[in-house]
Each structure stands twice: as structure tokens, then as C-alpha cells.
Design brief:
The chain is α+β, with helices and mostly antiparallel strands. It has helices at residues 104-113, 147-161, 170-178, 194-197, 240-247, 323-330, 335-345, and strands at 15-17, 34-36, 48-51, 58-64, 67-71, 88-92, 95-98, 229-235, 251-252, 264-267, 283-285, 310-311, 315-317.
Amino acid sequence: MIPTGSQSLLLGACITLCMLTGCGKGEFENITATELTAVLPTNPPQPYLSVIPGSAVNFQMVPLAGGRFRMGCDATEPGAKSGESPAHEVQVAGFWMGACEVTWDEYQLYQLDGLAHVDGVTGPTPPYVPMNFGMPVAGHPAISMTQYAARQYCKWLSGKTGFFYRLPTEAEWEYACRAGEQSAYSFGEDVQNLGDYAWYRENSNDAYHAVGQKAPNAWGLFDMHGNVAEWVLDGFDAQLYAERAQQGALLENPLHWATTEYQRVVRGGSWDDGAALLRSAARRASTEDWKQDDPQMPQSIWYLTNARFVGFRVVRPYDEPEANEQQRYWESQIPEIVAIQERQRRGER
């Protein structure tokens, strides 16, 4: 349920309801070029396109009603790895999720903006090498950012639009990916159908692809399987699911906060992965190797020179947290990262 008080908030910029190139399918097929200044969507929430103020770039959000599902998989599921089982009951509240992964078109606005237009947001330092690594940019997913950088993008986007955006929790991501199904993939068990929904090792030609080109899942979300793996908020703990299942209670909106720079979770698999890593329950933890070729000392808090397969998408919960609670979803609690961030905010390296 959306708080009544929030329904009177006007969008910071005009919401343009139109076809979005490369990601304009599913629920958006019948939307024509219409402009309106809209209040926060009423219950039930509606899909929307939001134009990033100061640009012509937009992004598409899909509403997902809250619900209950079995998170994780059975240990007998083909391809299952340690830390993905046992399945356990989870309840998530409603939220909007990006229909597609954040593209370079969106992310580069943030890279060029930083402190210039949104107070308190530090923009990334110049990368050592172009972070698209020779792959196309326009309409393609942004890659190789740290989880911290993705979180700061969400803070920047929130300041730009006036609404709270963040990374999904791991539970929200899997709930959205499954789209009501408990099978290995959102479309069922048959891996032979994976190519209809995903760019992965068998069909990617060793590169990511423009977002929204494959079939969406049943809830209108594109590239949940493959293209690029996606950051979530959670830290990885191989024993977590077993501990949750042992408790036996229904978990509501679980989030396992990360306390270290590495061992943070990405979901969905990528253009460079085999089918097993694209399963709805598949989990992967970040490692120091993802920065192996970073020549900076200390290494960048923004870029992952060896993780060309990692991107992200955003969510917007129906029930926004209080302003003083929002910072935890954006800022790092790692002292070393905080120290570097503060130096950058003072104009230092």
C-alpha cells in the first residue's frame, strides 16, 4: 500500500509515457507518445517511464506487487551450488523494478555529473581504461562498477528525480526473476529455451548486448537471466540459507548487510557464463580478483577492471524509508572506502 501522503508528491520532472528504444516491450507496447505531469501512481501502482532531469534519457520501471515465495533451491536442482539451498519461505513488500539493466546512457550522466548538481554525491574518478572494453555503449548495459559505485548512482538518481531508488535486496531480485515460478528458470526447466530469454556463453559472441532484446519474463522484466550479472545489496554467506531454514519462520524483507568490501552478491549470470549461473537461484560472490588489473594504489573504489560481466538495475519500494534511513542503502560502511570518499569530496585523489 502506498502511503496516502506520498500520493500528492509531484514527479520532479514530467514523466514521458512513450516507447523506449531497446526496452519497450511487454506492458509498454500500447503506450503512445503522451506527456503528463503525474502524481505518484495510485494503488495498484502503474508502470512508468522517468526522464532523468537535464537530459533526454529515460528509464522504464515495472510495478511488482509484494508476495511470498520460496527463496533458493533444492540441493538436487541441476547446477545448484553451495549456499543456494535449502529453499526457505520469504515475504517481500511491493516495489518497482527497472525493466532493464542500467545502461551506459544513464550511467554516464552520473559519471559526468557527480558533485556538480547533486549535493553529497561523489562522482567516479576517471577510469584507467575505457570501462566498456571495446564493446558498444549506446543502449547497452553499464558494466565494471563496484557495488559502492552502483549504490552512489542510486543516490544520485534519487537526488535527480526526487524519489528513492536503490539496489534490490537479494530476496527482491530473486522474487522478481522468478515471476511467480519455482522452476530453475523463470520460463521453466528446459535449458534449451534459455536462448529465447538470455544472452549467455552459448549465444553472446563474447560480449554483452543491447538491453531488452530477448523475451521478458512473465512480469515484464528483461535480461534477468544473462547479459550482465547484477549487483544486489546483500553480502554472501554460504551458511545463511541453512540458518534461515532451520529457524523455520517466514522471513519478511530479509537483507543480509555486507560488512566487508568483497563477498558481495551478484545475481542472474552474464554473457560470459554458462547456463547454470543463469538459474533464478544462482548466487555469485565478488572477489579481489575482480580488481586484479587495477594499477592504482589504493585500488579504485569505483571500478572493477576484471569484472566486465557485472552491472545492475534499480528498484523503488512502494513504501519509502525515512530520509535518515535512506543513507544506509547508498553509503559504504567500510572505513577504507569512507576515507577515500572523503578525500575525493575535498578534491583530493
